[in-house]
Design brief:
Layout lengths: L5 H9 L33 E7 L5 H11 L5 E5 L9 H5 L14 H12 L4 E3 L15 E3 L4 E5 L7 H4 L4 E6 L2 H14 L5 H20 L8 E4 L5 H16 L2 H5 L3 E3 L4 H11 L5 H20 L5 E6 L5 E6 L4 E7 L6 H7 L4 E10 L4 E8 L8 E5 L2 E2 L3 H12 L7 E4 L2 E2 L1 H10 L4 E4 L1 E2 L2 E2 L5 E2 L5 H6 L13 H4 L3
Parallel strand pairs: 1-5, 1-6, 2-5, 6-7, 8-18, 11-12, 11-14, 14-16, 15-17, 16-18, 17-19
Antiparallel strand pairs: 3-4, 9-10, 12-13, 20-21
The structure holds adenosine-5'-diphosphate (ADP), ligand L45E5XJ5 and magnesium ion.
Family: Belongs to the uridine kinase family. In the N-terminal section; belongs to the uridine kinase family.
Enzyme class: transferase
Catalytic activity: cytidine + ATP = CMP + ADP + H(+); uridine + ATP = UMP + ADP + H(+)
Length: 485
């Protein structure tokens, strides 16, 4: 993404549908019911692609397996360059010992690129399974590979073709001593591949070693990380996994707007989102899990307040150097759904003042009007936590933030807390108020033609306060029944 301008990135992030969306917050009419911004056609949710290169038997597969194991709660797929070996012709098969499997031309890079492109577009692909005994990739059924958060591409010459290199977000070179590689190769090829030692040594001296020197070693310079000793290097693997986790936790919008904070996803958080987004979830469960998520967002938001250093004496008589909370605070909820966040804020900040803003949505054009406000008189001297669980078009947020600014609150003193944010709303708010902070728990796919957030969770206020028209779902669908209690 490096050299692209913000505008380029915004346009790319909204994909082909960007023209329906205007930066003044209004949205062009659409009639096909499709999202105005979709996850699949923008830069969102692009998989993190890791390339792992190195000499044969250097430990590439071992390193990949360790990374996959440590990333156990992420969807990861491994694609091997071996799967893209060209099938040998009858003539080549007859003289297989003269065939150079370590030369860049031995691989069908076009097929590899096309498979990678599909995976990056979120489509499943069938990847051939190469048979080292028959030298063919059509002996076994192909392996169906589903799109994932992380794609690991592994192979001796994976950095050789610049088109493949460009796909990678992280490049790793496994650097293992040549003698070790040869020893492992002899053991592997005589064991797994059923070859005799003379053939293995002959192939090594004729092709493997020269190709390593001529084609593989020169690609080491492209690596971001070089791992000496391969799978034995636990420190390197831990650092790599940590980096991948950080990158995965960062939504691409966060790279455009540094004041947008998406709390790092975990299975717990995704589980809570799954429950509150499920239309069959009972009101009781909706409130319970929404409250848990709100509490997380509030705690995260409070972490962005300024602090002063403070020393205290512990009961052991020791000095503990800590920090003092920011005292000049106030919450402001956007009525009505924002009121659902007040309890969590009160639970975290004893005695906090909370103001209210009521904004009326006018018809279906995505425009809103400020109806009512009740704010602390000294609000201009306070840091404001603005509460609204959903950031959709951004129009309500713009109304609310504009009012706070008119009341004298510095833009940089406003932290907007919500549970879900649509990219359109993020663009609108962050463009207009680049100094405010937004803290959210998930970024949505987009808005539908009615300007509702999708996938979303429906009318938050109605579901939280129990004023939706729908009857309670059948008992069998309730969490209580699911848990057998
Ligand atoms: N750190 C290690 N210690 C001992 N054996 C290893 C180590 N790393 C890999 N091996 C063994 O060496 C062989 C080649 O390793 P592998 O990870 O398949 O390498 P590559 O994928 O680079 O060809 C395998 O039989 C593997 O079990
Ligand atoms: N039919 C084949 C195809 C490839 N090789 C050797 O495999 C090595 C690459 O695999 P790694 O798992 O070690 O990366 C490479 O050195 C080829 O010579 C083979 O022997 N036979
Ligand atoms: Mg391997």
């Amino acid at each position: 993404m490096g050299s692209k301008s913000v505008v380029d990135m915004i346009e790319a992030s909204s994909g082909a549908h960007f023209s329906g969306f205007h930066m003044d917050g209004s949205l062009g009419a659409r009639s096909n019911g499709q999202p105005t911004t979709s996850a699949s056609d923008g830069i969102y949710n692009q998989p993190f692609v890791i390339g792992v290169a190195g000499g044969a038997a250097s430990g590439k597969t071992t390193v990949c397996d360790m990374i996959i194991q440590q990333l156990h709660d992420q969807r990861v797929v491994l694609v091997n360059q071996d799967s893209f070996y060209f099938n040998l012709t009858e003539e080549e098969l007859k003289r297989v010992h003269e065939y150079n499997f370590d030369h860049p031309d031995a691989f069908d890079n076009d097929q590899l690129l096309s498979a990678m492109e599909k995976l990056r577009q979120g489509k499943a692909v069938d990847i051939p399974k190469y048979d080292f005994k028959s030298y063919k990739s059509d002996v076994f059924p192909a392996r169906r590979v589903n799109p994932s958060d992380v794609i690991i591409l592994e192979g001796i010459l994976i950095f050789h073709d610049p088109r493949i290199r460009e796909l990678m977000n992280m490049k790793i070179f496994v650097d293992t001593d040549a003698d070790v590689r040869l020893a492992r190769r002899i053991r592997r090829d005589t064991g797994e591949k059923g070859r005799d030692i003379a053939t293995v040594l002959d192939q090594y001296s004729k092709f493997v070693k020269p190709a390593f020197d001529d084609f593989i070693l020169p690609t080491k310079k492209y690596a971001d990380i070089i791992i000496p000793r391969g799978g034995d290097n636990h420190v390197a693997i831990d650092l790599i996994v940590q980096h991948i986790r950080t990158k995965l936790g960062q939504h691409d919008l966060c790279k455009i707007y540094p004041n947008l904070y998406v709390i790092q996803s975990t299975f717990q958080i995704r589980g809570m989102h799954t429950l509150i987004r499920d239309s069959q979830t009972t009101k009781h469960d909706f409130v319970f899990y929404a409250d848990r998520l709100i509490r997380l967002v509030v705690e995260h938001g409070l972490g962005h307040l300024p602090f002063t250093e403070k020393q205290v004496i512990t009961p052991t008589g020791s000095v503990y150097t800590g920090v003092d909370f920011c005292k000049r605070l106030c919450g402001v909820s956007v009525v009505r759904s924002g009121e659902s966040m007040e309890n969590a804020l009160r639970a975290c900040c004893k005695g906090i003042k909370i103001g209210k803003i009521l904004i009326h949505r006018e018809g279906d054009n995505g425009q809103n009007q400020l109806i009512y406000e009740k704010l602390p008189k000294d609000i201009a001297d306070r840091h404001v936590l603005l509460l609204d669980p959903i950031l959709g078009t951004g129009n309500s947020a713009v109304q609310a933030i504009s009012l706070l600014i008119r009341k004298g609150v510095p833009e940089a003193n406003i932290i907007f807390l919500n549970l879900i944010s649509a990219p359109q709303g993020v663009h609108v708010v962050c463009k207009k108020f680049p100094r405010i902070k937004i803290v959210t728990s998930e970024i949505e796919t987009g808005l539908n033609e009615d300007f509702r957030v999708i996938p979303g969770m429906g009318e938050f206020g109605d579901r939280y306060f129990g004023t939706d028209d729908d009857d309670e779902p059948p008992v069998a669908a309730t969490a209580a029944a699911k848990n057998g209690s």
